[in-house]
Amino acid sequence: MPMDAIWWLIAAIGFLMLEAATFNLVSVWFAVGSAAALLSCLATDSLKIQAVVFIAVSAFCLVAFKPLAAKLRHTSTPTNGDRNIGRTAEVLTPVSPSATGRVHLDGVDWNARAVPGAEFQPGDTCRVAAMESTLLIVEPAMAPSHADAT
What we know:
The protein is an alpha+beta fold. The chain has helices at 3-22, 27-40, 47-73, 146-149, and strands at residues 88-91, 101-105, 108-114, 125-132, 135-140. The protein contains 4 helices and 5 strands, in the order αααβββββα.
């Protein structure tokens, strides 16, 4: 086995170990580039060509697959609060799109803000259209749900 191949093998293993330690999905693409350069050792002894293969394959993988991997990795975690969407609540304090108020839902008081164009007064009934952290986004109880439109 030529010395170049040994160095590319060591590089691939090193990049994989670095990826295993960080999980940032960056060094794994360099490991793929190192593996491609290792395979290019079968075709040529030129270190320049092997380096070009390493750079080209690494750059291609980084540009092509990192956004895809980021999309696949980012999943929303459902919470118990998600069950509140679509349910009705009673307004305790004035709620508007620009002013946060309070609503009562299943024995719990929540901070709430209205969807654009809606305003609520104490005693009104509203429907939970969405949640943003611990803030309920509410809409008129008889309106079509914003959650259905998205």
